[in-house]
Design goal:
single chain, alpha+beta, 3-stranded antiparallel beta sheet, 3 strands, globular, Thi_S, Mopterin_synth/thiamin_S_b, Beta-grasp_dom_sf
């Protein structure tokens, strides 16, 4: 469950994701990796999390 004020990196950890392995969009704005540590979630935030997958 996401709670207001929760740091974004904590949510990613709960989901089993490393910040360097995903691209996160918050409220329609893509975040660069260095921004993730300073983000705290707010009520109504919309997140899109995309994990890069390599293979062939």
């Amino acid at each position: 469950m996401v709670m207001a004020g929760q740091p974004l990196p904590d949510l990613l950890a709960e989901l089993g994701l490393r910040p360097g392995s995903v691209v996160v969009e918050r409220n329609g704005v893509a975040l660069i990796p260095s921004e993730l540590t300073g983000i705290r979630l707010a009520d109504g935030d919309t997140l899109e999390i995309v994990r890069a997958v390599a293979g062939g």
